[in-house]
Every structure is written in C-alpha cells, then in structure tokens.
Amino acid sequence: MLALTVDPKKAGSLDVREVADPRPAAGELLVQGIAIGVCGTDREIAANDYGSAPPGKDRLILGHESLGRVVQAPPESGFAPGDLVAGVVRRPDPVPCGACAQGEFDMCRNGLYVERGIKDVDGFGSQLWTIEPSYAVKLDPSLGEVGMLMEPTSVVAKAWEQVELVGRRSWFDPKRVLVTGAGPIGLLAAMLGVQRGLDVHVLDLATSGPKPDAVAALGAEYHSSGIDSFIAKGRPDIVIEATGVSEVVIDAIGSTAAYGIVCLTGVSPGGRRISVDVGGANRSMVLENDAVVGSVNANLRHFAAAAESLRQADPTWLARLITQRISLNDFAQAFTHPDPDTDIKSIITL
C-alpha cells in the first residue's frame, strides 16, 4: 500500500512510499483510509520542528486527522465492515500518570503519552490502517465527505468543556462569544457555540473569500476591523482564542466582560516579545474574577462529543471548510504555506 511518510529528523524528507500492508492484531479493526486532514502540526513535522518516528524506525507515517471505512472487524467489537470511523490520536502513557490512569490522557502529566502520526506511533496517512476498537469512533454515514474534521472538532469540544467547567465555579449564564481566528479550529469552535444557542462572533483578518461566507452561513457574525472595534459594541463572556498570535492573545485576555473566560487553543511561536501591561491585566482579572485556560488535544469523551456535534451539523456547511482536496500523489500542495484569505482546510485523499 501507499503511505505518506516522513523522517521527523530531516526537513524535506516527506514523500509517498510503498509500505507493507498492516496486519491487525487480535481484536483490532482493519480500516481502509479515505482521507486525512493537514494542519500546522503536520507542517511542523515535515519541517523538522516536531515529531518522532516509532522506536527503531527512521520514518513516521504522517496523519492524525483521520477518516476511514472498516474493512474487517472482530465479532462483538461494536463495529462492522462499511462503518465510517475516525481514530483517536493520543494514547495514555504506560506508567501511567494519575491523569492517564483515569482516562484523561489528554492531560498527561509526565509526557510519556504517544500520538498517532505525531509522536512514536504511525499515523493514518496510509491506504490501510489498524486500530483498537476502544480508540475508534463511529461517524454518521452522512459525514463520508467531511469526517476528517472529527479530530479538530474533538479539540474544540474539549475547549468548550473546559470553559463550561471553569464557568461552573459560580453562577454562569454566558450570552456573547468571541472566536478569534477563522481557521478550522475557530470555525468549528464557532459552530459549537451556535449549537449551544449563544451569540457567536468571529474575528479574522480576511475581508473576502470563504471565511466571512462560512461564518454568515453558520448564523454567526463576522468581524475584520480589529478587537477594539468589536468590544466597543459589547464585551464577550467567553473568548475562544484560535490564532496563537501574541498580540491577539493579550487583547483577548483583556477584552472580556466580568467573570469572563478565555480559552487559548492556538499555539504561539516562541522567541517573539511584546510589551504588556502586566499590572493592568492582573488588576482586571482579579477584580472581575476572570479566568484564562489553555486547552490542547482530546480524549475519548471529547471525540464522542465531536461525533455528535458533527452529526447535528449541516454537511453542506462543513464542506465549506474544506478548501483543498488533494490526491496522495500531489501531497506537496497541502504543505505549502496556506493563503489566510482563501484557505481553510486542506485534505489529502488516500
């Protein structure tokens, strides 16, 4: 079979190679790969910024945003041939730490977890793959063209869970939500906000192209004139920050209403310094009981929540998020620097 592979220690090593077909272990599913999504993490691995191959191997099969169809399933696994599935990315560490022992492996304390297509375990970027039934999530049949959005949706499902858990420390009745960034994470976060019946606003730099249209079609409001202009009309109760841009992060933290919650999902690059009034930020957060929480990855609960959110969503709207469908042989197109005005999500068909 063909697979998209990379040597994580060598920039420019990404290519399609013939590899041996996988043999499912006892109890595992055999899955035909349909497509993978490509995100910033994949581009970082290809650029030798991150990632590691399985122990004893030089190359890693890339791909953690998966979509496949079951070919072979053991009896009583809960799956059958033809089922549409996505794979959970992270696995708990073998020690395990306290969080992993409780199934909260997205909160691993010692860093010994592994992640398919990222850290120490091959991913889903191959024409066949295997997976334990306990780490496979069944998707509604209507999601056959867009189910690779499952993994990023699980990330925002966790982010929303974190917001709601923090909110319940006191009376919490949010109305207005600001999502900064209209990439896949931002748009899916907005979708989950709309599904919760909230007044959702999305802020991004693009003034044309698919992003404003996708927000409007969702029933949310799009803004491109800056955060100061937005908050002049009313401060949000919740901010989901999905850009990782340092200035936006700081502005988001200072923009909320009293008892505001900011959830940071974008990863900022290191090495950039900006001037911040730490005293003013501290005063505001303390006096208004504000909270800032970081959120990354997802566990089984979040994948299940994501599957339900995608089932409820309009597949036509979800299809708007996929702005490039690229064949496996043309994989390099998905690893060029995306145009922020025209690109939302690139996928590679397998």
Features:
single chain; 350 residues; Quinone Oxidoreductase, Chain A, domain 1; Rossmann fold; seven-stranded mixed beta sheet; 10 helices
How does this structure look, described?
Helices cover 26% and strands 24% of the residues. With 350 residues, it is of the alpha/beta class. It has two domains: 2-146 and 321-349, Medium-chain alcohol dehydrogenases, catalytic domain (Quinone Oxidoreductase, Chain A, domain 1, Alpha-Beta Complex), CATH 3.90.180.10; 154-294, Rossmann fold (3-Layer(aba) Sandwich), CATH 3.40.50. The strands form four sheets. Strands 3, 5, 6, 10, 11, 18 and 19 form a seven-stranded mixed β-sheet that branches. The protein has a six-stranded parallel β-sheet with strand order 14-13-12-15-16-17, sandwiched between helices. It has a three-stranded antiparallel β-sheet with strand order 2-1-4, with no helix packed on it. Helix 3 (150-167) packs across helix 4, helix 3 (150-167) crosses helix 9 (300-312) and helix 4 packs parallel to helix 5 (210-218). The protein is globular and about 60 Å long.
Helix and strand topology:
Elements: E1 2-6, E2 15-18, E3 29-38, H1 40-46, E4 60-61, E5 65-72, E6 84-87, E7 90-91, H2 98-101, E8 114-116, E9 120-121, E10 128-131, E11 136-138, H3 150-167, E12 176-180, H4 184-195, E13 199-203, H5 210-218, E14 221-223, H6 227-231, E15 238-241, H7 246-253, E16 261-264, H8 278-287, E17 291-294, H9 300-312, H10 315-320, E18 322-327, E19 345-349
Parallel strand pairs: 8-9, 12-13, 12-15, 13-14, 15-16, 16-17, 18-19
Antiparallel strand pairs: 1-2, 1-4, 3-5, 3-10, 3-19, 5-6, 6-11, 7-8
